[in-house]
Specification:
Responsible for synthesis of pseudouridine from uracil at positions 955, 2504 and 2580 in 23S ribosomal RNA. It comes from Klebsiella pneumoniae. It is an enzyme of class 5 (isomerase). With 183 residues, this protein is α+β, with helices and mostly antiparallel strands. The protein has 2 domains: 3-82, RNA-binding S4 domain (Structural Genomics Hypothetical 15.5 Kd Protein In mrcA-pckA Intergenic Region, Chain A); 90-182, Pseudouridine synthase (2-Layer Sandwich). Helices cover 37% and strands 16% of the residues. It contains 7 helices and 8 strands. It has helices spanning 3-17, 36-43, 49-57, 90-95, 99-107, 137-144, 171-182; strands at 23-26, 62-63, 66-67, 79-82, 109-112, 116-121, 152-153, 163-168. The strands form 2 sheets. The chain has a 4-stranded antiparallel β-sheet with strand order 1-4-2-3, with no helix packed on it. Strands 5-6-8-7 form a 4-stranded antiparallel β-sheet. A hairpin with a 3-residue loop joins strand 5 and strand 6 (116-121). Helix 5 packs across helix 6 (137-144). The longest helix has 15 residues, at 3-17. The chain is globular. The N and C termini lie far apart (65 Å).
Length: 183
């Protein structure tokens, strides 16, 4: 392989597996109030929680140029430094066997606007992966809407239960819906 081809190959491999540089993120008003560890989970998709806690513990993540603990609550205007982190390639592969399920999700969306997404969850589908499941509604929606910065379940439904499921598309909508359903 020639030098030019080798470097092109390495660049394409690097682009898939790691963020090339430090990322600086200014916290918007709708992101304020959330814990830094949860914020990092949305920013570093596919990165294990253990790695997120490790980079926090080592001080690689900074808020306003200072180290923070995982429970630190972000405020509007905070400047977050996110270091380059290796992301496992299998994240894309994990969703691909479920392409039919992802496509089927678009057919059960009842309502969508800038703040929420409402869908009719079919029986037999988990709302999120885990406990031996690699696919759930939330993972499918994230694959269906890769441009969405924020998609979080407002509530859960059992795997064998069908029904209306609310998904927040903004943190402010999630907080508001949690407050309304708590009453």
């Amino acid at each position: 392989m020639s030098g030019a081809n080798a470097s092109g190959y390495l660049e394409s491999r690097t682009m898939k597996t790691e963020t090339p540089t430090v990322k600086m993120v200014a916290i918007a008003a709708d992101e304020a109030g959330q814990r830094i560890d949860n914020f990092l989970r949305t920013q570093l998709k596919g990165v294990p929680k253990s790695m997120i806690y490790r980079i926090l513990r080592k001080g690689e993540v900074r808020v306003n140029k200072k180290r923070v603990k995982p429970e630190y609550k972000l405020e509007a205007g905070d400047e977050v430094r996110i270091p380059p982190v290796r992301v496992a390639e299998r994240e894309e592969e994990a969703v691909s066997p479920h392409l039919q399920k992802v496509a089927a999700l678009s057919e059960v969306i009842l309502y969508e606007d800038d703040h929420i997404l409402v869908l009719n969850k079919p029986s037999g589908t988990a709302v999120h992966g885990g406990s031996g499941l690699s696919f759930g509604v939330i993972e499918g929606l994230r694959a269906l809407r890769p441009e969405a910065r924020f998609l979080e379940l407002v509530h859960r439904l059992d795997r064998d239960t069908s029904g209306v499921l609310l998904v927040a598309k903004k943190r402010s909508a999630l907080r508001s819906l949690h407050e309304q359903t708590a009453r």
